[in-house]
Design goal:
Layout: H1 7-15, E1 30-33, E2 36-39, E3 41-45, E4 71-75, H2 76-84, H3 91-103, H4 110-122, H5 127-142, E5 147-148, E6 160-165, E7 177-185, H6 190-209, E8 217-222, H7 231-247, E9 251-255, H8 257-266, H9 268-275, H10 281-288, H11 309-318, H12 321-325, E10 333-334, E11 338-343, E12 352-357, E13 363-366, H13 367-375, H14 384-388, E14 389-391, E15 401-402, E16 408-413, E17 420-427, E18 430-435, E19 439-441, E20 460-469, H15 480-489, H16 492-502, E21 513-514, E22 526-534, E23 540-549, E24 557-566, E25 587-588, H17 589-604, E26 624-632, E27 650-651, E28 665-672, H18 678-695
Parallel strand pairs: 7-8, 8-9, 13-15, 25-27
Antiparallel strand pairs: 1-2, 3-4, 5-6, 6-7, 10-11, 11-12, 12-13, 14-16, 16-17, 17-18, 19-28, 20-24, 20-26, 21-22, 22-23, 23-24, 26-28
């Protein structure tokens, strides 16, 4: 049977006694010094609940084991011998001690008895309820801007964080100003607490080494009660001082059971919630989940307060109101692209968030989903909801609420992508992943001429270039063989061989060859390779070039290019020999599609395998952006060779007819997710080619 005492039992026990019950012992029940109350008495059972325990009586009713009549207050010196030597201290004798103890009466004030009860409750809360209570107190002590965390992602943040200047903590004259982390550490042994604090410092050191933000201050909250003369307090202080110095902390605090009890006195709304607890930890969690966390005139925050009730209140009610969402844990907060407000989670629900982009509808979402959104980007500046967007109304939901079991959530408004921000993909077996929405634009110029050189120009270049923002601890090219094998597996090499066969070109022995300086670089940051096909005179007629550039520390973009370069003067066909007009040798739209469809995964996945095992596993720092180009490399350069018009090199007739002499070049920009399936890439390429010819002024068929 668990040792759980009701508030009535604790209050009666301490209110009726003033000293240890052992005859002749004058040790008091509590020590109050420097305005801090410490319970020094221990609760002993006259009859044990366990068959092998001291003074067990099989006929004694189970429901009376933890009642006041079967409990005795002893000091630490006398509790152990009374239990260890039960034959010397029988039930009858202990009952006589109790009569004498209660006859003497108690001298504790009502306030002191209440504090004793609260301290006992801290030791019975359980880790989840203790964490919730500490989070609520942290919001009071530091300020309403405190952010709380929980669930599977809690370990990456702490139990609560605060960023900024506190409202008078630890003192009004010298408030903390910086990034503060609160860790709730529930347990029953001081040695365990030391080990947990050491592990916590190790965890933060590891996260800081990976580029995460380092705390400026830390608070460790424990249910243990530590007195000023306790050697354990000295050991803990020395331990934290040492690690705080190593970590560069500007300050730290240890909130022990006594300090927490003082906070509960100061913030009665939290204390009243704790005081209503009478039995199981499940009830504790249910009550504490609904705690208001900052004192206001009404005692609780309102949904949307201040000033947004008209938008937030209907969404709150539609999602189930207090029974599902619980109480607001603070004011509405600005979150770069909108508003958000956290809720405790009601009896029939779970911790939740109401969020709304500026000018858009309010959406109710489980805090687990909101935390997953916040975790995208691995903590990089501009990531999370600001980067990928807020959940939108109409996303998969029940009764206007997106629950923690949702696997695909539509997003919008993030700064990393287009207005249609994509989707958050969630799975119980894998970390949440962002899939940005597919979008096209006409601003493809950044990588049009990357790696271009006047020394080695061809007639036609068809290019897929990608810039992929990713976060990694260390970028370094170390697996070139794996990269080249993955490139071949995309099918791009087969497309190249088919073109070479079509034009009766010769393939030199071997496969991929490094591109030498100055046209290419190959080191720990660059990879440049090509395959060529020659005419009968040994001139390079076709070249397939791949390039990878890793971030330089000033940005987070992995840059890739895949080029098909064509020298029309060197081309031959089986149907006709070279002629003055190359129109008979034009590439078809089908050839363009085949190249783009296979160059796409080469640029966005295969090339990255030179430096990472799985690009999809790395935190994004933005949306991947591709540029698709069809251009003449000679355009605008020297007169060393005639410039061949684009229409003489590519047959666009299946897409439309040009106005006038046709375009000088065609291009399109694409924002897309990594890891798209083949059918999605094929459709995207079709849409991209349509976008290109429309931008270039082609007359295209009306959509049906």
């Amino acid at each position: 049977m668990a040792r759980q005492y009701t508030s009535r039992t604790i209050k009666l026990l301490f209110a009726r006694a003033r000293r240890c019950a052992f005859p002749g012992c004058t040790e008091g029940l509590v020590l109050e010094d420097r305005d801090r109350l410490t319970v020094v008495a221990q609760i002993a059972h006259i009859r044990s609940e366990k068959p092998d325990g001291p003074r067990h009586e099989p006929t004694y009713a189970d429901e009376l084991i933890n009642e006041e009549e079967n409990l005795l207050l002893l000091c630490g010196k006398h509790h152990k011998p009374v239990d260890d030597h039960e034959s010397v201290y029988p039930v009858a004798e202990l009952l006589s001690w109790k009569r004498e103890q209660t006859a003497a009466g108690g001298d504790l004030s009502e306030h002191q008895v209440e504090r004793i009860f609260l301290h006992d409750d801290l030791n019975r809360l359980g880790p989840d309820a203790f964490e919730k209570m500490c989070q609520a107190l942290t919001m009071h002590v530091l300020g309403p801007e405190t952010k709380i965390f929980g669930g599977p992602r809690r370990g990456a943040e702490g139990d609560a964080t605060f960023n900024g200047r506190t409202t008078g903590f630890p003192t009004h004259d010298a408030p903390w100003d910086g990034f503060i982390v609160m860790e709730a550490m529930y347990g029953g042994a001081s040695r365990t607490l030391r080990h947990r604090i050491e592990r916590e410092f190790e965890r933060w050191a590891s996260q800081t080494a990976r580029g995460d933000r380092r705390p400026d201050y830390m608070i460790f909250a424990t249910n243990l009660q530590l007195t000023a003369d306790d050697p354990e307090l000295g050991r803990l202080t020395a331990l934290i001082d040492f690690h705080a110095g190593q970590a560069g902390l500007r300050g730290w605090r240890l909130w022990d059971g006594t300090q927490l009890a003082e906070f509960l006195d100061v913030y009665p709304n939290v204390r009243r919630a704790v005081g209503t607890i009478s039995t199981a930890n499940e009830i504790v969690a249910a009550v504490l989940a609904q705690l208001p966390t900052t004192p206001v005139a009404e005692g609780v925050f309102r949904p949307g307060e201040p000033g947004n009730e008209a938008a937030f209140q209907p969404a709150y009610e539609a999602a189930g109101g207090a029974r599902s969402l619980g109480h607001a844990l603070g004011h509405v907060q600005q979150d770069r692209i909108g508003w958000s407000q956290h809720f405790s989670g009601g009896i029939n629900g779970e911790p939740a968030v109401l969020c709304a982009r500026y000018g858009k509808n309010v959406v109710a979402v489980a805090r687990a989903v909101w935390n997953d959104i916040g975790g995208i980007g691995g903590g990089i500046a501009g990531g999370g909801a600001a980067g990928i967007g807020f959940p939108v109304s109409g996303a998969p939901s029940r009764d206007g609420y997106i629950g923690s079991d949702a696997e695909s959530i539509e997003l919008a408004g993030g700064q990393w992508g287009p207005e249609k921000g994509g989707r958050l993909l969630r799975s119980p077996r894998e970390p949440a992943r962002w899939q940005p929405g597919l979008a096209f634009d006409s601003n493809a110029s950044k990588d049009r001429d990357t790696w271009a050189t006047l020394a080695d120009q061809r007639d036609l270049r068809i290019r897929v270039a990608a810039r992929i923002p990713l976060c990694a601890e260390l970028w370094r090219i170390s697996r070139r063989g794996r990269m080249l094998a993955a490139v071949d597996a995309t099918g791009i090499t087969a497309v190249f061989h088919a073109l070479a066969d079509q034009y009766c070109l010769e393939m030199p022995a071997g496969s991929w060859q490094e591109i030498g300086e100055p046209d290419g670089h190959n080191n720990s940051r660059f990879a440049s390779y090509q395959i060529t096909a020659n005419d009968s005179d040994g001139r390079t007629a076709l070249a397939l070039c791949i390039r990878l550039t890793l971030p330089d520390g000033l940005n987070v973009d992995v840059h890739t290019t895949v080029d098909l370069r064509v020298d029309f003067a060197a081309l031959t066909t089986t149907a006709a020999p070279p002629a003055e007009s190359p129109s008979a040798r034009r590439l078809t739209v089908d050839a363009l599609k085949a190249f783009f469809v296979h160059a796409w995964p080469t640029a966005t996945d295969a090339l990255l395998l030179a430096a990472t095992d799985d690009p999809l596993a790395l935190p994004p720092a933005g949306a991947a952006r591709l540029e698709l180009h069809i251009q003449n490399e000679q355009l605008g350069h020297s007169d060393r060779r005639p410039t061949i018009p684009i229409l003489d090199m590519v047959d666009f007739s299946s897409l439309g007819s040009p106005r006038g002499t046709g375009p000088r070049a065609l291009s399109v920009g694409v924002t897309a997710a990594l890891g798209l399936p083949a059918d999605a890439i094929a459709q995207a390429v079709d849409d991209a080619l349509q976008w290109m010819v429309e931008d270039a002024g082609f007359v295209t068929p009306e959509p049906t």
